[in-house]
Amino acid sequence: MFDLVDIWAARTNNEVTLVSANDHIHARGSAHYAGLAVDLHTMDPDRLAQMLRRAGYRVLWKVPGHYAHIHVEIESSQARDSRTGAPRATNAP
Predict the structure, then answer these.
(1) CA nearest 58: which of 43, 29, 38?
(2) Which listed CATH number (3.40.50.2300, 3.40.50.11720, 3.30.1380.10, 3.30.450.20) goes with 2-73?
(3) Strands 37-42 and 16-20
C-alpha cells in the first residue's frame, strides 16, 4: 500500500502523511488493532481515496469519524500480493 501511495504522491506532487496505524485510540474491533488499517492525510484526499478504492482497498472518507483523514483498510480475508501488499484477484495463480 505504501509503495502505491508514494507513487501517487510523486505523480500528483502531493505529500501524504501517515496519521495513525495502531498508535491512537480507535473504535472497538478496529482493523487498526489487527495491523490492517492506517489513517492518511493529504491536501487532495478525494483523489487519493479514489485511487486507493480503485486499487481494491476499503476506504473510509467523508463519513462520520473520517472527515479529517482517510482510513485505508486491508480486508483480512483478501489475498495480498507479497511484494506490494495490494489486493490480489481471488482467481490469480
Answers:
(1) 38
(2) 3.30.1380.10
(3) antiparallel
Q: In the chain, what are the domain boundaries?
A: 2-73
pLDDT tens readout for residues 37-72: 888 999 999 999 999 999 999 999 998 888 899 999
How big is the CA angle at 20 (ends 14 and 25), to the nearest 5 degrees? Answer: 150
Is pTM beyond 0.85 here?
no
Encode burial over 29-63: b for 16+ CB neighbours within 10 A, e otherwise.
eebbeeebbbbbebebbeebbebbeebebbbbbee
Is the pLDDT reported for residue 92 higher than 60? Answer: no
